Amino acid sequence: MAYDFDLLVIGAGSGGVRCARMAASYGARVAVVESRHWGGTCVNLGCVPKKLMVQASEFGDLVHDSHGFGWTTAPGTHDWATLIAAKDREITRLNGIYVSMLEKAGVTLLTGHARFVDGHTLSIEPSELAPTATPQTVTAERIVIATGSTPFRPDFTGVELAITSDQAFHLPERPQRVVLLGSGYIGIEFAGIFAGLGSRVDLVYRRDLPLRGFDEDMRTALSEAIAVRGITQHRHTNPVSLERDGADLVLALDDGRSLRADCVFLATGRRPKIDGLGLENTDVVTVENGRIQVDDTSETAHPGIYAIGDVTDRINLTPVAIAEGHTLADRLFGTAPPRQWCYATTPKAVFFSPPLASVGLTETEAAQNGTVDIYLTRFTPMRHTLGGRRDRKTVMKLVVDQASQKVVGVHILGDDAPEMLQAVAVAVTAGLTKADFDRTIGIHPTSAEELVTMRTRTRETLKSG
């Protein structure tokens, strides 16, 4: 059978765009269909605009800190509308870059909502990006689902009065009182943004500590940093109901208390974006939370249909989606073996103030494989000794497999942690040992030199299980 395209990618986010571009570079006839915005969640409603807002939230601290260095600066007032307009201009610029990259690669751009008719056929109907488009039907030998994820809304009375991250990027003004539900990446980062810009912030979450899945020492350090930021934490707490009382929103909690706010923000996780895809017309299998099940080659249960990125709910990070898209294009159309990636040492960062970054195993995870040596340091960075923020600590941790002496995990909370961690991730991926760290000369004076000067073992953690 003759198909319109060799490959059709549903979703023009980071993973889908990389897959399409690489496949086209190998000579494949490729199309991408997008229903909402070029660049996907990361560029439009995720990591890029959020990082810009984090940076905006830190300038007030810098003004204050400059006084300790002799500057006579005066605190100003923040104009939320100016920030949002500047952010929107940058996102529009990036949207154009994504479109340009695809066009230069020879990829056909289709706008609309894609729905499977069968395993090789898609109907493309009007959508937010192209509301007046004429419906069309296209065929492809292979189809890649790269539709990403969407915010999850928990079920409690009045939840429709709350916003998610999708709306947070377009609020007409900054709310003075914000209640955030959830302590994952999104909740922590937006809590820091609003607090840094002057809002009163309450953070409500179910567990003892924020950031489930991260190393316990770093979770504790982050909880302390959240308190230093002036954010009130409500642990072991769940929402019961939300209602409007005049100009206020009133959130009732299951411990009997209630919180008044101008904005209640749901940061309660995300789920794969599969609604309306017509997967019932294929043999694609979805499992818990709606994630699409794939094998090691990113192929679904339906031969010729693949899925990459957040829609598979594996490691939901933009660089991982890009790696999956690149590898899939190599495998399907390349002439050389696919590029190899080390997913086990995928670094990650949480852009709070100060940020947290991590690579490799936590102490608990590493101890399941054998006894580990732990090296831990906590200090006040030089800038804060004069700036006056002596309670803003940097915490660094090395997790070392005792038998092999390989550094299997590095965790940092502190200024510039993500920038430091990216280079360290190379060392962990390469399997370097504590001795390799020790024989590396540090750059002085920096916080990063602590990574190669931690000589005294803090503790030994015996093999668990």
Structure description:
- By secondary structure, the protein is an alpha/beta fold.
- It is globular, with a radius of gyration of 24 Å.
Shape: globular
User: Gap between N and C termini, in Å?
Assistant: 55 Å
Biggest sheet features: 7 strands, mixed
User: Are there runs of 5+ residues with pLDDT below 50, and where?
Assistant: none
- Helix coverage percent: 25-40%
Strand content: 15-25%
Question: How many beta strands in the DSSP annotation?
Answer: 22
- Write down the overall mean pLDDT: 96
Count of alpha and pi helical runs = 12
Helix-strand makeup class = alpha/beta
Secondary structure elements and pairings:
Elements: E1 5-10, H1 14-25, E2 30-34, H2 40-45, H3 47-66, H4 80-104, E3 108-111, E4 113-118, E5 121-125, E6 136-145, E7 149-151, H5 165-168, E8 177-181, H6 185-196, E9 200-204, H7 216-228, E10 232-234, E11 239-245, E12 248-253, E13 258-261, E14 263-266, E15 270-272, E16 305-307, H8 318-333, E17 348-350, E18 356-360, H9 363-367, E19 372-379, H10 382-387, E20 394-401, E21 407-413, H11 417-429, H12 434-438, E22 459-461
Parallel strand pairs: 1-2, 1-6, 2-3, 6-16, 8-9, 8-14, 9-10
Antiparallel strand pairs: 4-5, 5-6, 7-15, 11-12, 12-13, 17-18, 18-21, 19-20, 19-22, 20-21
Helix pairs in contact: 1-8, 3-4, 3-6
